[in-house]
Design brief:
This protein has 5 helices and 7 strands, in the order E-E-H-E-E-H-E-H-E-H-E-H. With 200 residues, it is α/β, with parallel strands linked by helices. It has one domain: P-loop containing nucleotide triphosphate hydrolases (Rossmann fold, 3-Layer(aba) Sandwich), CATH 3.40.50. Strand 3 and strand 4 form a beta hairpin. Bound molecules: guanosine-5'-diphosphate. Guanosine-5'-diphosphate (GDP) binds next to helix 1.
């Protein structure tokens, strides 16, 4: 898919105030600092469409962008930032769960995982929650340029194996990306394009 336009629409803290258009919507979410803003900028080839986070945990809003006047790309707040208070963690959880429960236009969630790390409880639990709520998702491994090919293979296999050995019958679809090297861009955009074609 060629990106011909990518425009910021709005930021919100309430699902009810998100755009009313019934366009297919794709959400991007992951731990703070996972590389979400960089990935969104790489996908859209816009230098600073998504703000790369100066201070993780600060941008707690749902950000809508419209791509090719056809689909929404949604930048959700990063989770798992240790320095936010318990109260704000709860508020955050409520707000994210409402987004996933209420947003009918949502077609797929892309859950970002830093390819260098061992599977983390917070990510596994989040994907389990998506699964129990029947929300389609795929994994996007980020920062692949930081590892050698053999290490990428080992880490990805380890991650997927842990998932299928615990609760998942099938391995979720996954992508390997690097925003600094542009790796995985075509795969991700083609995947979105294919879904858009099937549902239009
Ligand atoms: P966010 O908090 O998830 O939006 O993460 P950012 O996109 O702001 O990235 C967090 C840090 O990781 C920044 O220092 C980025 O430069 C770095 N980063 C993000 N993506 C990549 C990547 O693909 N490769 C490398 N080497 N660094 C990356």
């Amino acid at each position: 898919m060629k990106i011909t336009s990518a425009t910021f629409v709005m930021s919100n803290s309430q699902v009810a105030l998100c755009p009313k258009d019934r366009l297919a919507e794709y959400a991007f979410i992951g731990r703070s600092n996972v590389g979400k803003s960089s990935l969104i900028n790489m996908l859209t080839q816009r230098k600073s469409l998504a703000k790369t986070s100066g201070r993780p945990g600060k941008t707690q809003l749902i950000n809508h962008f419209i791509i090719n006047k056809k689909w929404f790309l949604v930048d959700l707040p990063g989770y798992g930032y240790a320095r936010v208070s318990k109260k704000s963690k709860k508020t955050f959880q409520k707000f994210i769960t409402s987004y996933f429960e209420e947003r009918e236009q949502l077609v797929n969630a892309f859950v970002l995982i830093d390819i260098r790390h061992e599977p983390q409880k917070i990510d596994l639990e989040f994907m389990e929650w998506l699964g129990t709520h029947q929300i389609p998702f795929s994994i996007v491994f980020t920062k692949a340029d930081k590892l050698k090919p053999i290490e990428i293979e080992t880490n990805v296999t380890n991650y997927i194996t842990q998932m299928t050995e615990s609760i998942w019958e099938e391995a979720p679809k996954h992508f390997i990306t690097s925003s600094s090297k542009g790796i995985g861009r075509d795969d991700l955009l083609n995947y979105i394009d294919e879904i858009n074609r099937n549902i239009s």
